[in-house]
Amino acid sequence: MITQQIGASTGLAPRHTVPLPVTIATPAIIAIVGAMITVVGSALPWVTIFRGTQTLTGWHGSPRYLAGVAVASIALTLLFLWAGRPAALRRLAVLAGLTAVVGVAFASWQVAGLDSSHSVSARILTPVLGPGPLIMLAGALLLLAVVAIPTSAAKVPAPLWPRVILAGALLTAGWIHLALTPEHLGEATILGLGFLAAGLAQLALALLITARPSDLAYYAVVGLSAALVVLYAIAVLKGLPFGGGRDHGSGLRLGSGEPVDLEGAVSKLAELFSLATAFVLVGRPTTPTARW
Amino acid sequence: MNIFGRPHARPRRVALAIAGFSAAFSALLVGGYAFASGSPSNTLPVSSARTPAWTNGKTVTVQYAQDYFCDRTVTAVPLAASGCEVGAAANVGPVANPDRSTIYVVIPLFANPNPPTMCPTATGPTPPLNCPNHPQDIYVPLAGFGDIPLPAHSHILDGPAGGWWDVKGVVVLDQATWAELAAGKSLGTLLNIEARPDAASHILFGTNLPTNLFLFFNTVS
Predict the structure, then answer these.
(1) Residues 6+ apart with CB under 8 A from A279
(2) Domain A1-154 maps to which CATH number in 1.20.140, 3.30.1490, 3.40.190, 1.20.1070?
């Protein structure tokens, strides 16, 4: 049941929980279903290539990151409801939802464009669209149901912003780890499980920091981020001992290990930012206002 | 507006200690694992790895003494892509000497080729089921995807030489042609098929599909 916290916008205690009116609950449920459909669509076949001998799901390419954007949109929608429906959070949820819609539509259009061309690449690849793009696009469109939820006059409590930004950085790094889990599982089981554990831990911490901030949670962010940054530095400068001697593609080579690619750079920047932000936030009073 | 509240010094010292301990612990963990498993902390090629190949009517064994090379000057998306492409010839090779042998990487574009490919997977099982010192991924101009796992393939050599090999792609469209190549086990068989009037319906682009990829191996038996 979708509920809202009475007194959430003011930060006054005590608070109690009441069911949301149907005009708010219905679009919220639609958006939640949309997020689930988007994630499912990303895992379905997007395109078959090489005359149907190889199937690529969204998790082979950029659609996996668009699924992450959809998760961010629904997280912001729920935060919007929980925080008393301040307009700023709805704008962010809509922005993330629109990004998912435009991204999925653009990716589908480009794949379909190659399918209909007669270039050398098209003749080798013979790409045929699967159900993934359409299902993902339908799900992403449902995310925009959040615009039907009326806003209130409430403002986002000031102490919430740094935590939302920290949670965003953790979500970014965590989703990249989850997105890279399948290919690292293929490389070495221990490596894949490490990516999975890191991703899930970062997502859990993003939730915890937003909903129940505490020094313990900030300590966990600091510890996890420091460990992951050091592990990546070793992987880049020297190489990890459980990679099986696999190629890691191209990028900026800084040592004898794997090159720094776009995903690695973004996730490590997000972790360094998380570490610094958690360090700033730790020890701050967690009053009822800070917890809204 | 102070959105942070007043800081306390002690929790920050604790956070600093946690960061230091966590960083040191993870580094020691990796070092300990490397020491215990005897595995070096780097991504050196699997120098002892071998695969079969066809040449002069027989199946030979080749050993990959070095990792592959792809000329990244032709790569469309340098930061994200694997650096290896099919359909784009290299501008420069791994060494200055242009006199290299050619390996034809034969890719079946149909299900369940018989006999099975020499390199069925790019990842997963250890050699020879995967392809040692091959690129794990290959770039394709498919927006939103870019790198895809290296397709399953077999090898035809233009002779029993060693050193750096220029890789050319051969795309086989049907089982009958695949079986003919497997029976002939030679470049001559491939060229015969290419010379037929209906070659285009059996082998896409003949033997003229360039790549920017080079492999390093020696024929050992």
Answers:
(1) A218, A222, B12, B15, B16, B19
(2) 1.20.140
Please name the residue that has the structure tokens 């966990």.
A220
Q: Kindly report the nearest CA distance between residue A93 and chain B, in angstroms.
A: 22
Measured from the Cβ of residue A119, the count of other Cβ atoms closer than 10 Å reads 11
Query: Which stretch, A184-188, B120-124, B167-171, has highest mean pLDDT?
Result: B167-171
Complex ipTM > 0.90: no
Range of the domain at B153: 50-219
For A5, A84, A154, B4, B189, the CA distances from A13, given in Å and listed in that order, are 11, 14, 16, 20, 83
B-chain CB neighbours of A126 within 8 Å are 109
Total number of domains constituting chain B:
2
Hey, where are the domains in chain A?
Answer: 1-154, 157-292
Per-residue model confidence as pLDDT tens digits over A112-151: 877 666 666 677 788 888 999 999 999 999 999 999 999 9
Same-domain pairing of B55 and B37: no
Whether residue B60 sits in one domain with residue B35: no
Contact A61 B39 (CB under 8 A): no
Contact B204 A183 (CB under 8 A): no
Residues of B with Cβ-Cβ distance to A251 under 8 angstroms = 79
Chain B neighbors of A52, CB-CB under 8 A: 111
Domain boundary pick from B24, B42, B60: B42
pLDDT tens digit sequence for A44-103: 999 998 888 888 999 988 999 999 999 999 999 999 999 999 999 999 999 999 999 999
Which residues of chain B does A239 touch, with a Cβ-Cβ cutoff of 8 Å?
40-43
B57 with B157, same domain: the answer is yes
Beta bridge partners of B70: B213
Which of A49, A53, A258 is the best substitution to test chain B (most B C-beta atoms within 10 A)?
Answer: A53
The 8-class DSSP code of residue B85 comes to: B
Residues B55 and B36 in one domain: no
